[in-house]
Design a protein that fits this description.
Urease, subunit C, domain 1; alpha/beta; 9-stranded mixed sheet; TIM Barrel; 2 domains; binds zinc ion; about 475 residues; about 35% helix
């Protein structure tokens, strides 16, 4: 990769709030080249301008004046990563039960623990733990789908993340919703209360777990509620072969065709996984403008299969990356998802040109923002968008030498290389230190709670 020569760029008018300089900048705008000697000017929480300086400066007349400066020390500045699907509070169940068949994993461990051990306070603290991991890994926007979602939303708000919080809906007793007849009322109240909850950073909506755990009326009513308000609607779709076979037996349709039959597919629907989509299903999603969240680590760990992502991209379906919950991953590391996605589709197609590095980084940033309907706010470093960005430390053995920053981000960098993180002009991480979260308190509470969860599971074994 060759970089354009440095030079001066149009400055913002007057002094800006923050100037990040001495950086290699990836704006992720389509077709934009990396900017060496780059700078990013931030004013009022938004990107004011991006440019390149004749020298590192300051003092350098080609740098815009600013009240506060951050020397990126030659680091890589790019838009914050967008995690399009997780169940944040499931960090509680990280490593609790691995290497089991999906049905046994769900019914012997996850469902009993969720129903009888989890409560709103645990969701709050679990989501704070997840937020700490997300921020340290360069994520600035997260789509969370779980139960007790009002508590999750409160935690994501405290962390300062940009978030789409979706209340989970199933047609059987769920955490916080013991009577499933109340599920849509709880979800509706959650959406309603979201109107007053930091509207710039937080979207409140609904996640129907799947076509096999929600009946047709539930699916249609939930979709109608979100559609009326222009909100994204989340659903796990075609995750396993078993799901496809059972739904086909019951309804005569594939999961995608079934949702279309119910009128659920449109440009505000986010289909998570999409592993077992037929070519006709893929055409259908493309025609309806459905977005897809690709969660490769979870699909591999649960042996669900490999989603046909290159085929969806060829059909111009908008695809983003997600981690899924930490119980099936087992981390919330989007660098890991980038690395795995790029390699997985290459070996699956026996074609090393599949899903190249630059496209993979776009899935984790710009395209992820489009999946969530947040492309006006975030996903690229474009003047007028929110200042959601990360600085990656390039001064490391495993990132030396540097020819192509996209290659390093996908094939060599790790979440631990993230040094600074900003959301809407506010620093959440500076020099790897969390600024919005009390890490010792979070860690202490989770470790104590983890011992309690272990005792609960031992009793489950005896029951
Ligand atoms: Zn999921």
């Amino acid at each position: 990769m060759s970089f354009p020569p440095p030079g001066t760029t149009a400055h913002p008018a007057g002094e800006v709030d923050i100037l990040i300089y001495n950086a290699l900048v990836l704006t992720l705008e389509p077709g934009a080249a990396p900017i060496i000697n780059g700078w990013v000017a931030i004013q009022g929480g938004k990107i004011a301008a991006v440019g390149s300086a004749a020298s590192f400066g300051p003092p350098c007349p080609s740098l815009p004046p600013a009240r506060r400066l951050l020397d990126a020390q030659g680091g890589l500045v790019l838009p914050g990563l967008v995690n399009t699907h997780t169940h944040a509070a499931m960090v509680w169940f990280r490593g609790l039960a691995d290497d089991l068949p999906l049905h046994q994993w769900l019914h012997d461990f996850i469902f009993p623990a969720e129903l009888r051990w989890l409560d709103g306070e645990k969701v709050f603290w679990g989501t704070l733990l997840a937020a700490a991991e997300l921020i340290r890994g360069g994520v600035t926007t997260v789509a969370d789908s779980y139960f007790y979602e009002a508590e999750a939303r409160r935690a994501l708000g405290e962390a300062g993340l940009r978030a789409v919080a979706a209340q989970g809906v199933v047609d059987f007793p769920a955490p916080g919703v013991p009577d499933p007849r109340d599920n849509l009322q709880v979800a509706g109240e959650f959406v309603e209360s979201g109107r007053h909850f930091s509207p710039d950073l937080m979207t409140s909506t609904i996640f129907c777990h799947s076509p096999y755990t929600c009946g047709p009326e539930t699916l249609q009513q939930a979709k109608a509620l979100t559609r009326k308000q222009g909100l994204p609607f989340f659903i796990h779709l075609a995750e396993t072969r078993q799901e496809v076979e059972e739904l086909q037996k019951k309804t005569g349709h594939t999961p995608a065709a079934y949702l279309d039959h119910l009128g659920l597919l449109d440009e505000l629907t986010v289909a998570v996984h999409g592993v077992w989509l037929t070519p006709a299903d893929q055409d259908l999603l493309a025609r309806r403008g459905v977005k897809v969240s690709h969660c490769p680590e979870s699909n591999l760990k649960l042996a669900a299969g490999v989603a046909p992502i290159p085929d969806l991209l060829a059909r111009e379906v908008t695809v983003g990356l997600g981690t899924d919950g930490a119980a099936s991953n087992n981390n919330l590391d989007l660098f890991g998802e980038m690395s795995l996605a790029a390699r997985l589709h290459k070996v699956w197609r026996h074609d090393p040109t599949t899903l190249p590095a630059a496209q993979t980084v776009a899935l984790a940033t710009r395209e992820g923002a489009r999946v969530l309907g947040l492309e006006e706010a975030t996903g690229t470093l474009t003047p007028g968008k929110a200042a959601d960005l990360v600085v990656v430390d390039l001064n490391q053995a495993h990132l030396t030498p540097l020819f192509d920053p996209y290659s390093h981000l996908v094939y060599a960098a790790r979440a631990a290389d993230v040094r600074h993180v900003m959301v809407a002009g506010r620093w959440l991480l500076r020099d790897k230190e969390l600024l919005t979260l009390d890490w010792p308190e979070i860690a202490g509470r989770i470790r104590t709670g983890g011992r309690d969860l272990a005792a609960f599971c031992q009793n489950l074994g005896r029951a």
